[in-house]
Pyranose oxidase
Amino acid sequence: MSCGSPGPAGTPSTGRSCSPTSARWARVADPRPLLSLTWYAAKEIRARDRVTFSAERLDAYGMPAPRVEYGLTRADRAIAARAAELVSTVAASLGEATPGGEPRLLPAGSSLHYQGTVRMGDDPRTSVCDRDGRVWGVDNLVVGGNGVIGWPTAANPTLTSAALAVRSAAAVARMIQGV
């Protein structure tokens, strides 16, 4: 095995170097394959996880600025801790971890798939819209997409959102036709 080269097929690099040039290269580019592991878990649904609007702050359009109210329950934290244990176990079985690559919980608000902000349901006291996306108390307002998902999901709700949007569109078509 030469200095700084990968080991036999299927084994990670030793990271050894013999010369100043190869030592610099080894610090800059690690030739070993890199694998990222991610565990997803559903979060408990809470009525107080929501979007409200500020009475004091305005957004760039002069409208009340949105404020995300979000938190984790004790059960959410326990599930996240268990997921971190599992990913650490799996990662250790695959080889040496990348420094700084320890499991971490992303900060609140870092999701790319916000959902439940206009939660659907059967009760206007606990939801924003009905199962067709019709907003309670507003005859001509229908919503669709991630916002109406009112149950826990772990990741990538795109297909669910599309199905809900199709159902909302059908409700709009029925409204227009007077059915």
